[in-house]
What we know:
This protein is α/β, with parallel strands linked by helices. It has a single domain (about 1-205), classed as 3-Layer(aba) Sandwich (Rossmann fold), CATH 3.40.50.150. Helix content is about 40%, strand content about 25%. The protein has helices at about 1-35, 70-85, 120-130, 150-165, 175-180, and strands spanning about 45, 65-70, 90, 105-110, 135-145, 185-195, 195-205. Strands 3-2-1-4-5-7-6 form a seven-stranded mixed sheet, sandwiched between helices. Helix 3 (about 120-130) links the parallel strand 4 and strand 5 (about 135-145). Helix 1 runs parallel beside helix 2 (about 70-85). The two termini are about 30 Å apart. The relative contact order is 0.15. Bound molecules: S-adenosylmethionine. S-adenosylmethionine binds next to helix 1 and strand 2.
Amino acid sequence: MANLGLRERYQRIAPFYDLLDFPFEHGRYRHIRPLLFAGLSGRILDAGVGTGCNIPFYPADACMTGIDLSPAMLARARQRAKAVGRTVDLQLMDVTRLDLPDDMFDAAVASFLFCVLPDESQPDALRELRRVIKPGGTLRLLEYIRPTGALRGFIARLWEPWMAFAYGAGFDRRTQAHLRNLGFEIVESRFVVDDLIQMIEVRID
Ligand SMILES: C[S@@+](CC[C@H](N)C(=O)[O-])C[C@H]1O[C@@H](n2cnc3c(N)ncnc32)[C@H](O)[C@@H]1O
């Protein structure tokens, strides 16, 4: 049910998504997106591909699949793939129920998906990602979290109602706790923008 709400939300905002995100994309995200793909190769899944903002940063020789819950966001991703001349297998799919074979990918990435996914959906999403990544493969997440510092924490709290309203996103998701509860091996967890955006790397066993 929660995911149905997200689909409708992203169907509505797809035409404006890139415009809404423009200041963040140009000020912040385009500098950190390459980190998601550093050192990755082979077959890679981009979960919650959205309008395809990661596409220009895909490794040149990787075989890319992108999935998303919203057909309208995927349509934008298709346009972007075409515009940058990149072949991407883009499919309509829910990350909590992937219609993909076991061990299909060498790696999977998700940028700003887990700060949108409700906590109750996160264990299913993580189990599915683990299922489709080969043993020894990599999962990388780029996510907002609530800053711990007093000033930034205060600013984030002012900003959170807008994030929830516009994107269905929150800074309060317990993604690392879900990873630990499910027994994932967190190889690295580091801030890539202040103490606000974190990159988490997990090794699949
Ligand atoms: C904040 S956007 C991020 C898009 C893109 N990854 C980026 O970095 O710009 C979140 C995306 O996740 C998608 N999404 C939300 N819930 C999903 C689910 N259960 N399965 C797949 N995609 C989902 C939304 O449709 C939306 O395109």
